[in-house]
Amino acid sequence: MASAESRLRIRKENDVHQVEFIDRNILDEGNIQQIGEEISEIIEAEGKPNVLISFSNVDHLSSAALGTLITLNNKVKGKNGQLRLANIDPQIYEVFVITKLNKLFQIHDTTSEAMSAF
Questions:
Q1: How, if at all, do strands 8-13 and 16-21 pair?
Q2: What is the Cβ-side half-sphere exposure of residue 8, based on CA atoms within 13 angstroms?
Q3: Which pTM does this prediction carry?
Q4: Which domains does the chain show, CATH number per domain?
Q5: Which of 66, 79, 83, 93 has the most CB atoms lying inside 10 A of its own CB?
Q6: Exposed, middle or buried, 106 (CB in 10 Å: 0-12/13-18/19+)?
Q7: Are 73 and 43 in contact (CB under 8 A)?
């Protein structure tokens, strides 16, 4: 599933795909596109995808990355799945609040909280 060049660490626990970013800064357009494609493959492969994206390693996120998250959220919802976000740095969370994306996404403080919410 994840290639040698993957920007992600992906593992499946129960019915939930846990995705973690390798990069601290998700700013490069090419990397964002690759990340979007990798997560899309997971979503497409599942009948009812459950995806948890952890931002525990992430310090910076671009607006393009936010756009990709919105697209992924729509794909998951289109297949009656669930997308959860966890471990978001307070400064990045501020961006979610300003853009009102905190209302769109189900955001949890920790991975374990997000897992128990599925």
A1: antiparallel
A2: 25
A3: 0.93
A4: 26-116 (3.30.750.24)
A5: 83
A6: middle
A7: no
How do residues 94-110 score in pLDDT, each as one tens digit? 999 999 999 999 999 99
* Percentage with pLDDT > 90 across the chain: 90
Query: Quick one: DSSP state of residue 11?
Result: E
DSSP 100: T
Backbone dihedral angles phi then psi of residue 66, each to the nearest 5 degrees: -65, -40
Residues in the chain: 118
Residue 61: pLDDT above 50? yes
pLDDT of residue 74: 98
- In the numeric block, the tokens 């660490």 are attached to 9
Q: Taking 70 as the threshold, does the pLDDT of residue 4 lie above it?
A: no
Distance from C-alpha of 112 to C-alpha of 117, rounded to nearest angstrom: 9
The per-residue DSSP string of 65-88 comes to HHHHHHHHHHHHHHTT-EEEEE--
